[in-house]
Here is the input.
Amino acid sequence: MLTPNRKGLSALPSDLFYSQVVDINYIAGLTWTRQPGLRVLFHGPQDKVNFGLSVEQADQYIGGSGGGGAITLPSALSGMVPTQLDSAGNISGASYLQSPTLAPDIIAKAAFDPSSRLHFEVGGILSSFKTSSLAAPWSHHTRPARG
Here is the structure.
């Protein structure tokens, strides 16, 4: 949903804004993903104004794919990587959908096409995440006061 468009909010390759290079994955600033989601679009009169809202599965990615280095968590948190955080080895099926996300990502975008030579769009994403550690000391939990 956040990939820039040439026209409206279409997902068709001819309407997306990317270069003519051999591999478009090397262009900085383009966002690509294959995460599950629900997208709702509203096309205004004559397709000159378009609004879109998308709710997508969040991915708690911490690096480690495509030759990039992975982060090193403190030893007390190292057990979270295989089950809660995506370090490029945790992308498949059931484990991907079991990550403890706080809420899905919400993406909003508006596109304006006043003429065939001008396209303007603005968008944003609301994303949050959480992790849980059952190994945390009990001293971190508060107890109700008695009296």
Remarks:
- The longest helix spans residues 93-97.
- The first strand starts at residue 37 and ends at 43.
- The CA atoms of residues 57 and 104 lie 5 Å apart.
